[in-house]
Amino acid sequence: MISYAPLWYTMDRKSVTPYALRYKHNIGGGTIQRLKKNETVSTNTLDMLCKILDCPLSDVAEYIPDTKAGE
Asked: What is the pLDDT of residues 5-51, one digit of tens each?
């Protein structure tokens, strides 16, 4: 699973709000909602977020392995 939890910490650290992403940087409202729900977004979106926040991808998303029942 891909988690966007690091994104929210990075945005807070850099004082960037979801409002700024939407209206200053033209990130769609639907995309912001998908990020909040850890749903899929395009690599173009991830690239834009890294440019906007001037950070590496690891400050935007992280991989969390799925756990299988019984493990």
From this structure: 999 999 999 999 999 999 999 999 999 999 999 999 999 999 999 99
Which residues lie below 8 Å from residue 40, measured CB to CB, with a gap of 6+?
Answer: 2, 34
CA 59/CA 71 separation, integer angstroms: 29
Beta bridge partners of 62: 3
User: Is this model's pTM higher than 0.85 or not?
Assistant: yes
Q: Tell me how far CA of residue 36 lies from CA of 42, 60, 61, in angstroms.
A: 14, 12, 12
Cβ 60 vs Cβ 50: under 8 Å: yes
Contacts 24+ apart (CB under 8 A), 25-32: 25/52
Amino acid identity, position 5: A
